[in-house]
Amino acid sequence: MSSTNLRSEIYKTIGFTYRNYIITKRNFFTLFETLFWPIIGLISVGLMGAYLNLDKNYLAFILIGAVTLSVLQVSQLDVAYVLLFDMWSKSLRYTFVTPISIFNMIFGAWFFGAFRGLVAFLILVVSGKFLFDLNLLIDPVGLFIFLLGIFLSAMIIGTLTCSLLLIFGYRAEVSAWTLTAIFMLLCGIYYPVTLLPPGLREMAYAIPLTHFLEFYRSFYGFSPSTNNPALIGYSLSFLFLILLFLTLMWASDRARKRGTVTQFSE
Amino acid sequence: MHSVECEDVWMIYRSLFSEKVALKEVNLKIPRNKIYGILGPNGAGKTTLISLMATLLRQTRGRIEVLGYDTISEFREIRKRINIASGNPNLIWSLTVYENLRYYSLLYGINDRKAVEELIKEFELEEFRDVEFNKLSTGSKQKLILARAFVNNPELVFLDEPTKGLDPPVARRLREKIRFLQKDLGITIVLTTHYMSEAEMLCDRITFINRGKIVAEGTKEELKRLLKMRDKITIEIEGIVPDLRLEGVFAVERDGNQLSFYVDSAEARLWEIAKEVARFGRIKNISVKEVDLEDVFNELAK
Ligand SMILES: Nc1ncnc2c1ncn2[C@@H]1O[C@H](COP(=O)(O)OP(=O)(O)OP(=O)(O)O)[C@@H](O)[C@H]1O
Ligand SMILES: [Mg+2]
C-alpha cells in the first residue's frame, strides 16, 4: 500500500469517528449513556454488596462486573449504531456509494466508542475509589489488556448488530441491547461461570469476555479456570471478528442484491 | 468510450415471499460529457436503474460497465469516480451543512477543509454553513445534497429526480446550476425526472422506461422524429366510416362522429386521409395536433 493510499484509508476511517463524535456532541442522551447509567449501576451494585456485608475482594469481584458491563455497553453502541444513524435518517445510500470498506466503518466508529468507554471507565474508577474504596488501577499493564479486551468485545457486538440490521432491518436494533444482556448472563458479570449449569458453561467459555473477566479478577485473588485467560480471550476475539467481518461483507453484498440500501434511503 | 453500458440487464427484487421484476432486458449506452435523461412513470424502474449504475444495487442478470469498470467486480473503482444525489433530501439530521460535507469528503479519503468551504460557496450555502440539516428548508437541503455529490470531483453524477418537490423558481435555478456544472466541469450527468420540461431543458439524450423496459431512446431530435410518427389528425364527419386501411396510419380511435388517426406525419398524410374519409360523408371539421414530449410520455406510460 502506498503512502497516499494509506493516508486515504486513514481519512475514510476517521470520517466515521468524526461523525460519531458530532452526533454524540449534539445528543444530550449520550451524556446519560456515558455518565448516568454507569454510575447508577456502580452505586446500586456497590450498595447491594455493602448490605450483604461482602468482604473487600468479593465486593471488588462484583464491582468489576458492573464496571465491565457499563464500559461494554457504552462502547458497543457507537459501533452498533454506525449503520442505524443512516437508517434512521434514510441516508444509507450516501454512505454506501462512497468507496469505503466495512473496516473503515467499523474501526472508525469503534475508535470513538472506545474513547467513550474509556471516559466512562475513568469516571467509574474515580467514583469506585471514592464511594467503595475500590482500586481498579491495581496493575496498569493488566488493566490495559483487560480494557482492550472489553473494547474488542464491543466491536464484536457492534459488528454483529450491523450485520443483523442489514439482514433483518430496523428490528434488529434490539440486538444491540439483547446481546449485551446475554453476555451479562453468560460471561459471569456478577458470578463465576463455574456456577452455570453444564452446556451454558461451555457457551460461556466460548465467549471472549468470560476470559477477560477471569483475567482481571485474578489480580484480586480469584484464580482463573484456564492457564492463560488473556491469551484465550484475544484468540477467541480475533476468531469471532474474522467471522463477523466476513458476515458483514456477505450482508452488504446481499443488501445490494435485495435492494436493502435503496429501501432505507426512501 | 461510453460512460455507462448496460447489456441485457435484469433486476429482480427477491424476498422471502415475493419476487418483483423491476427491470428487464435493459440495453443502454450512455455517452460521455452529456446530460442523459431517464424518464418514466411512477414505479417504472428509474431509481432501480440509476442505483444499479451507481453500484448501490446488484443486477440479477446482465452486465453493467461504468467508466470502463464492471459494477460487480470493480465497484470500488467506480465509487471513487462517481456520485449520486436524490430528490428525497435525506442526510444525517444533526450534522450541519459544513459537517455533512466534511464527513462525506473524508469518506472519499479527502482531508481538505478548504475544498469543503469552497463547495459551500459554490452552492450558495454560506449563510447556512452551521445550520443542522433538519433545520434547513427543502430548497437548501436539495442544494446541500447536490453539493455533496461533488465532494469527490466525480466524472459521472447520478441525479434521481433532483428537483422533486421544489417551487418552480427554485427548481429552475437548480436546473441552471446542473447545466452549468456539467459544462463547466465537463462531466457526465445521468438524471431521472417526471418533468418533461426538465428533460427538454437539460437532457441531450433521453430514454423512456415503462414497467421495467426501455420503450424509446434517442436525442431530442431523434425523439422528435419519433414523436412526429404519432401526430394526430381528428376528423368530424356526418356519416358512417368503415374500418380503413391507410398508409402511414398507426391507429384509429373512434368517438361518436369523431375519428382520430395517429400517423407518422400529419403533413404528408392529411390529404390522403381526408379524401378517403370524404367518400363516406360530409366532413364537418378537421384538426391536426403534433404530439409533444408530454403526450409521448403519456402514451409510452400506458
Ligand atoms: N427494495 C425493493 N424491494 C422490492 N421491490 C422494490 C424495491 N425497490 C423498488 N421496488 C419495486 O420495483 C419497481 C420499480 O421501482 P423504482 O423505485 O425503481 O421505480 P421509479 O421509476 O423510481 O418510481 P418513482 O417514480 O415512484 O420514483 C416498483 O414496482 C417498486 O415497487
Ligand atoms: Mg424513483
Termini separation of chain B (Å)? 34 Å
* Main beta-sheet strand count, sense and barrel state of chain A: none
Q: Most extensive interface: pair and counts?
A: A-B, 38 and 40 residues
Topology order of chain A in helix (H) and strand (E) letters = HHHHHHHHHHH
Report the helical percentage of chain B.
Answer: 25-40%
Mean pLDDT of chain A: 92
- What's the oligomerization state? heterodimer
Shape of chain A: globular
| DSSP helical segment count of chain A | 11
First-to-last CA distance of chain A: 37 Å
Question: What's the main sheet of chain B like?
Answer: 6 strands, mixed
Keywords for this structure?
A: 266 residues; mainly alpha; B: alpha/beta; Rossmann fold; Alpha-Beta Plaits; 2 domains; six-stranded mixed beta sheet; four-stranded antiparallel beta sheet; 10 helices; 14 strands; elongated; binds adenosine-5'-triphosphate
Offer a concise description of the structure.
By secondary structure, chain A is mainly α. Chain A is built from eleven helices and no strands.
Task: Provide a descriptive summary of the structure in words.
The complex is a heterodimer of chains A (266) and B (302). Chain A is mainly alpha-helical. Chain A has one domain. Helices cover 79% and strands 0% of the residues of chain A. Chain A contains eleven helices and no strands. Chain A has helices spanning 3-26, 28-51, 56-88, 92-96, 102-132, 140-168, 174-186, 200-206, 208-217, 229-258, 260-263. The two termini of chain A are 37 Å apart. Chain B is of the alpha/beta class and 302 residues long. Chain B has two domains: 33-50 and 74-218, P-loop containing nucleotide triphosphate hydrolases (Rossmann fold); 228-300, 2-Layer Sandwich (Alpha-Beta Plaits), CATH 3.30.70. Helices cover 34% and strands 31% of the residues of chain B. Chain B has ten helices and 14 strands. Chain B has helices at residues 46-53, 75-81, 97-107, 113-122, 138-148, 168-185, 196-202, 220-228, 266-278, 293-300; strands at 4-14, 19-30, 35-39, 61-66, 69-70, 82-86, 156-160, 188-193, 205-210, 213-219, 231-238, 249-255, 258-263, 282-289. In chain B, strands 6-7-8-3-9-10 form a six-stranded mixed beta sheet, sandwiched between helices. A four-stranded antiparallel beta sheet of chain B has the order 2-1-4-5, with helices on one face. In chain B, helix 3 (97-107) crosses helix 4 (113-122). Chain B starts with a strand and ends with a helix. At the A-B interface, helix 1, helix 4 and helix 10 of A face helix 1, helix 2, strand 6 and helix 3 of B. The structure holds adenosine-5'-triphosphate (ATP) and magnesium ion. Adenosine-5'-triphosphate sits between chains B (13, 20, 22, 40, 42-48) and A (259, 262-263).
